[in-house]
Amino acid sequence: MTKFARQLQFQMFLLPILVIYSVFTIYPLIKSFFLSFTNFDGYTEAYDFIGLKNYARIFSDDAITSAISYTLFFTFGKAILVTLLAIPLAMILDQKFLTRNIHRAIFFFPSIPSGLLLAYIWGFILAPIGSGVLNTVLRELFNIGPQPWLSDPLLAKLSTIVVATWAITGWHAVLYLAFLQSIPKDYYEAASIDGASRFQQIRYITIPLLAPAMTVSVMLLLTGGLKVFEIPFALTKGGPGYETYSITQVIVLRGISETQYGLASAMSIVFFLIVLAIAIFQVTVMQRREQGLQ
Amino acid sequence: MTKSYNKRLWILDLLMLPAGLIAFFPFYLIIVNTFKTMQDAAKSPMALPSKWIFSNYVQVFEETSILLSFWNSLTITVCSVLLIVLIGAMAAYPVVFNTNRFTRFAMLYLLAGFMIPFQATLIPLFQLMSGLQLIDKIYGLIILYMSGSVFVFFLMMGYMKSIPRELPEAAVIDGCSIGGIFWRIIFPLLKPITITSIIFQTMWIWNDFLAPMLFLNSTSKSTLVLQIYKAKGEFTVDWPMFMTLTIVTLVPIFIFFIIMQKHIVKGIAAGAVKG
């Protein structure tokens, strides 16, 4: 068998992935970039290059600016809240208490079903009218009048963060748990012989050794958060106004529903750059932090 | 010593009880409301049913095409996941066992895919799918999902590096062909990482909403998630019906969770420790 034929046989194994990936990921990305400089509307064949006009329009389009600020608010809000809850939760679930397994299952399960479905369930709880479950509880226990959980701009944003946090905290706790279990018990024993309090042990042993887990967890939270769509869509449909429109929803609205391909493509490219920038920033910062702590 | 130790952990049980109840509450709420009439659910959503009824469950199967949606979701998920895992594993083979300039380039080229969100390619993808007449086709969606194989490729590559190189070399001496080495020796060894890949891809595709919403229009091709979305508009006031539909769609994913829980947790741990 010639060397060439041998090579060809090997490279054939790469062919399917290269074809699929080139056609359904790379080509559309390049085309997004190309369309973002045109006024293509999806119907007329003829279109012009209009330079950076679409990019300028992004910043004067209320729906788009609102979507960018909401998506960033949601992403960071959720990442901070989940991290603050998942680490203590993991530490608790690491203890051998009686109902540990049932608690692990309860906190972990919400990360399994679709976000759309979970958000719809929460929609019944947060229903703004007096018959909403949460408002009923508040009325009967504390005599507080109905709160507009999903129709007040700030409350709606916070509600989506709370629901997303509820759904994913258990998953991240499991991730931290895996790291906690890999910390040798001798470390704690040595520390307690040296007279370190439980709090000092957490501060100087657990937290530093969880740093790599935190890098992974926060990266997943940030990249996942930026791609948010289902939860606000199901809870608020993006409202009130454009207050809880996610970037994904605004791309679908401007691009697919209104066929403003140029504008939506510019938005796609900006989105791609945001994801890229945050990922690079996060990985470099967190890795430096990891090195600092260890 | 032992006594105080036990006492402290007993406090944890007590402490976690309210947290667990709050976390579980949404599920309690939907389960309990599936056994109520509309009036009963509107009047007291949290209480146990004043009179237990089961007609909602009968009605869900009569009035919605939920079984068809289940079948669609199953077809799409099973076909996509199998293809994704196969393509991903195949691609890792030459990259690990026949490294040269071309495979190195291919790896870098695929690595870029990690950073490209689906949303950034959405508009041209929509045009492309209509151009190729893949819209509103079950197989169209399956083809689209195959781009998820990039993620699997990297998982497979990492795992394949731990396979000793002597293994395929010995097989060559025994007269095994290049394809034969992969199918008969390498692929069976990838079982652990294949299970992890299957689990994560299944959860993604089974739960995906954006792609089916954009690329499947007709009711007869709805996935379960899409069915939930449509039902939300249909049963706006009939909470018990909607919640019954939700429970019925949760059953398969719950069974999946129970069977796979150990593997899912292992997968998360392995991914985290490596990453």
Write the layout of secondary structure elements.
The complex is a heterodimer of chains A (294) and B (275).
Chain A: H1 3-11, H2 15-35, H3 53-58, H4 62-93, H5 100-108, H6 115-126, H7 133-142, H8 153-180, H9 185-193, H10 198-226, H11 230-236, H12 247-257, H13 261-293
Helix pairs in contact in A: 2-13, 4-8, 4-10, 4-12, 5-8, 6-8, 6-11, 8-10, 8-11, 10-13, 12-13
Chain B: H1 2-33, H2 38-43, H3 55-63, H4 66-97, H5 101-111, H6 122-131, H7 138-145, H8 149-160, H9 166-173, H10 178-189, H11 191-207, H12 210-215, H13 224-234, H14 239-274
Give a quick set of tags describing it.
heterodimer, A: 294 residues, B: 275 residues, mainly alpha, disordered N terminus
Strand content of chain A: under 5%
List low-confidence stretches of chain B: 1-5
- Percent range of helical residues of chain A: over 70%
Shape call of chain A: globular
Structural class by secondary-structure content of chain A:
mainly alpha
**Class per helix and strand makeup of chain B:** mainly alpha
Number of E-state strands of chain B: 0
Order of helices and strands of chain A: HHHHHHHHHHHHH
Explained architecture:
The complex is a heterodimer of chains A (294) and B (275). Chain A is an all-alpha fold. Chain A has helices spanning 3-11, 15-35, 53-58, 62-93, 100-108, 115-126, 133-142, 153-180, 185-193, 198-226, 230-236, 247-257, 261-293. In chain A, helix 6 runs parallel beside helix 11 (230-236). Chain A is 73% helix and 0% strand. Chain A is built from 13 helices and no strands. Chain A starts with a helix and ends with a helix. With 275 residues, chain B is an all-alpha fold. Chain B has helices at 2-33, 38-43, 55-63, 66-97, 101-111, 122-131, 138-145, 149-160, 166-173, 178-189, 191-207, 210-215, 224-234, 239-274. In chain B, helix 9 (166-173) packs antiparallel against helix 10 (178-189). The longest helix of chain B has 36 residues, at 239-274. The radius of gyration of chain B is 24 Å and the shape is globular. Mean pLDDT of chain B is 84; it is low at 1-5. Classes of the chains: A mainly alpha (294), B mainly alpha (275). Chains A and B meet through helix 1, helix 2, helix 5, helix 6 and helix 7 of A and helix 1, helix 4, helix 5, helix 6 and helix 8 of B.
